[in-house]
Design a protein that fits this description.
Number of strands: 0
Strand content: under 5%
CATH class: Mainly Alpha
Distance between the termini: 80 Å
CATH superfamily: MetI-like
Number of helices: 8
Largest sheet: none
Structural class: mainly alpha
């Protein structure tokens, strides 16, 4: 049976078009430059993220206690502030906090440098997220049955002792899921700080569309910033999942 010639010639090997080869070479040349710039921007993003948490977590508890205060004027004032902050866009709050002192009061307290922009962004984010955290705290505290407080008072415990030794562990268990959701949202919300020209990661990626470090008209760095957010939020999701499992011994 004839099986054909043994020296079969598949024909010419397809060649990569010159334009595609040039694009790949350009990408490989730009990649380390872009990654270096994105890393610097992401460090600024992480810095704003951690500063916000350090300020908003304790401030949120203070606001929650104020909103639950038996002093009616204090409670009413606190609730109005929370309503205003939660009901208005964070971007508007950033613009007001950064520009209001200089334009309206004639006292640009933040200055014009990167450190001033970062300080203004930190204040805006801390106030905004403290108000959101306060509602989570308030919901967690008020979800504890009143009978536990009454039992503590019968045993001679002070309200502070009841909160620290009876309520706190239960509150932490209940607020972890909503707090984790807000914290993951915070990672993404840091991108709003570019509205006052804070050079975070989105700013760094968008700069290559205009002109930055000899690169212009490149949109892929902006898309690549999503990898940083996905990686960061993925780690946070794993962390909070671990925390929830550690607290699962206490069923509520």
């Amino acid at each position: 049976m004839y099986s054909g010639p043994n020296n079969y010639d598949p024909g010419p090997i397809p060649q990569i078009p010159d334009e595609r080869r040039e694009n790949m070479q350009l990408f490989l040349k730009q990649f380390p430059i872009v990654i270096q710039s994105l890393n610097i921007g992401f460090l600024q993003t992480l810095k704003l993220f951690f500063v916000t948490l350090l300020g908003a977590i304790p401030l949120g508890l203070v606001i929650a206690l104020g909103s639950m205060s038996r002093v009616k004027p204090l409670s009413a004032l606190t609730r109005v502030i929370v309503w205003i902050v939660r009901g208005s866009p964070l971007m508007i709050q950033l613009l007001i906090i950064f520009y209001f002192p200089g334009i309206v009061l004639g006292n640009p307290i933040w200055g014009g440098g990167e450190s001033g922009r970062f300080a203004a962004a930190s204040v805006a984010f801390i106030i905004n997220y403290a108000c959101y955290f306060s509602e989570i705290y308030r919901g967690g505290i008020q979800s504890i049955p009143i009978g536990q407080e009454e039992a503590g008072l019968v045993l001679g415990m002070t309200p502070a002792q009841i909160f620290l030794h009876v309520k706190l562990s239960q509150v932490i268990k209940r607020i972890v899921p909503p707090m984790s959701n807000e914290i993951i949202t915070l990672v993404k919300d840091t991108s709003l700080s570019r509205i006052i020209a804070l050079q975070e990661i989105i700013w760094a990626g968008q700069a290559f569309m205009k002109s930055s470090r000899g690169i212009s008209g490149a949109i892929w760095p902006l898309f690549f910033t999503g990898v940083y957010y996905l990686a960061c939020n993925g780690l946070l999701t794993l962390l909070f999942g671990w925390v929830e499992r550690k607290l699962s011994y206490y069923k509520v």
